[in-house]
Amino acid sequence: MAMKAGFLAAAAACVCLAAAAAAFDVPTVAFEEGFSPLFGDGNLVRARDDRAARLLLDRRSGSGFISSDYYLHGFFSASIKLPRDYTAGVVVAFYLSNGDVYEKTHDELDFEFLGSRWGGQWRVQTNVYGNGSTSRGREERYLLPFDPTLEAHRYSILWAPTHIIFYVDDTPIREVVRHPGMGGDFPAKPMAVYATIWDGSAWATEGGKYKVNYKYAPFASDFSDLSLLGCRAAAAADPAALRLGRSSDAAAAGCDLLGLLTADYAVMTPQKRAAMRAFRARRMTYTVCYDAARYAAGPFPECDNSEEERGAFWAWGESKTVVMKARGRGRRGRGSRAGAGARGRAGAASS
Q: What Gene3D superfamilies does this protein's entry cite (predicted)?
């Protein structure tokens, strides 16, 4: 209860920190305007002004929320502050998915934040799935250039018919350009926007070697500056409409695709591309594009590989130079938080 009260009292300050880190000048929505609780009951705590929400994970449950509508393309973002101290096994996620509608052919775009044994050393994973292509996972993982537990930073996903861009604040960290060879692996069906915190003990930290330790619970992640700039396809309360296809067709017909494709967050300028390459060279710990162990047939068609860059990666896709360095135990203590989440899909990540 003390943690929930503290969040409500500090929510305004949290929003101010998040605003300072915002990448683009985009409108935000109140929770009630754009989202609904997903699971966790009391472990989802909304700020008094309804502009922020705290997700808690404890022994009883994780928590999460979902957008009130499905969207066909758009720009989706949130400012997120991650749990502090010992967070091994904890997963915080901000993502788009239609898995509740298309169980075996779902699309998905993820930011997954993977906790660790050392304070603020969270690892971030991005995923791209289309038409149920989880067996051809397109994961990448990165270290962040800041401590994501000290203040909120903005994480954004641009999803257009032609390309996808993942942003950390104003820096693009990954671009996936639609390639004919991708076929249905490129997400193309309406998706809802999710935010969750859950127990990923089975895989999230060093392949499941280190589990969630509930001695440090509850774990808390704060979400603010919520943006939903997309073409509404159907209400999340009526997902059956998506299966019929009519709502997605209507969304496509009524969507301002030209406006989306020409917005600053959708255009990859030379300056942005240089910033992205610098980030990836210094911060990317794994990319599927160089993982010959999992995909012996070669890289995916959208991968922009080079022989020079390949030399910086092992045959299993891990970087030879960008590695997580262990920290001392001094920052451990009773800190931010853990529990049993609902979104327990296994992944191929380690932290």
A: 2.60.120.200
Residue that the structure tokens 């890289």 belong to:
299
Catalytic position from the list 32, 33, 103, 108:
108
Closest CA to 324 of 110, 83, 80, 115: 115
Residues 6+ apart with CB under 8 A from 281: 312
pTM, full prediction? 0.86
Q: Which neighbouring-strand residues pair with 191?
A: 71
**Is residue 21 in a domain?**
no
Render pLDDT for 94-118 as a digit per residue (tens, 0 to 9): 999 999 999 899 999 999 999 998 8
For residue 186 the two structure tokens come to: 């490129």
Tell me which residue range forms the domain holding 274.
31-320
175 among known catalytic residues? no
Q: Dig out the tokens for 180 from the structure.
A: 């004919």
- Judge whether residue 232 has pLDDT over 70: yes
User: Residue 282, Cα to own-chain centre: how many angstroms?
Assistant: 20
Indicate whether 2 belongs to any domain.
no
**For the domain that residue 184 is a member of, what is the CATH number?**
2.60.120.200
- Choice among 112, 139, 140, 318 that is catalytic: 112
Confidence check: pLDDT of 75 > 80:
yes
In angstroms, the CA 101 to CA 228 distance is 20
Residue 9 located in a structural domain: no
**Residue 147 has what DSSP assignment?**
-
Cis before 148? omega within 30: no
pLDDT category of residue 248 using cuts at 50, 70 and 90? low
Whose CA is closest to 46, among 224, 311, 235? 224
**Residue 143 domain-assigned (yes or no):** yes
Q: Which residue has the higher pLDDT, 259 or 4?
A: 259
Please count the structural domains in the chain: 1
